[in-house]
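Re-run with default settings, no changes from the original entry. Doing this only to confirm the output is reproducible before filing.
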Amino acid sequence: AAALFLLVCDAATALYMLAAFLPASILLWFVLRGKRPYRYAVILMSVVFALFGYAVLCLPSMLAGGGPFDGATAMISKEIDALMPLLPQLFDTAEQVELAEAYLTAAVDLVPEDVVGIIFGLSEFFAFIDTVLARVLLKRAKAEARPMAPFILWQLPKDFIWGALILGAGAIATLLLNLNNANTIAVAVECIVLPPLALMGLAFFEFSMLLSARRSNGWRVFTYVALVLLFPTSLVLLSGFGILDRVMKVRSRMLRRK
């Protein structure tokens, strides 16, 4: 986490972001100590990381009287302005230079969506990794902890689909009404809903691989490489599998047949 933050932020911002791990770790400890479901830890830690990320990346510009994404937009715009004079040296034709300039100009308009995606994406990633790592360390230490189901049997709670539908309907409504930051809200909903569904889709895929004839490591490696190369399309595909499994209870039915 420290290396990643230092790569994209200055030292002070990276230090502020790392400070989020303290309250997140305390919440993780309470969940583990109380033997609560592990998803509670992921949810609570994601909220803490997201709040810290928003405070570090967006709050300064708001306190200065601007919008939440003005600071990030100004920073990216400054970098792009410095890159613009170099484009004729990087491309052979004027058409290529104009196309690159158009892409870079459009990138500035997408900064709010990118910032939201980074905040939510990293929050969920670190919360999930920290929870799994804590469970592994507890198991190795032979400490008493709540059992964790095998990955192929991981399931989302029943209310998640309903919550996802409500959030999706709200995002669509903001887009149709053309409200301020509607695209940013839609990105936030995507970041909240799609990763858990994609994880369930991946668990469903691993479950199917376990029961199928194609269980070789080569086939599995090929599939995962394809998922990485097709990202973010693969995220949507896996989310679709997750929804299919949740609604039709495919794994539950197959286990009952076994």
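DSSP finds 14 helices and no strands in the chain. The mean pLDDT is 81.
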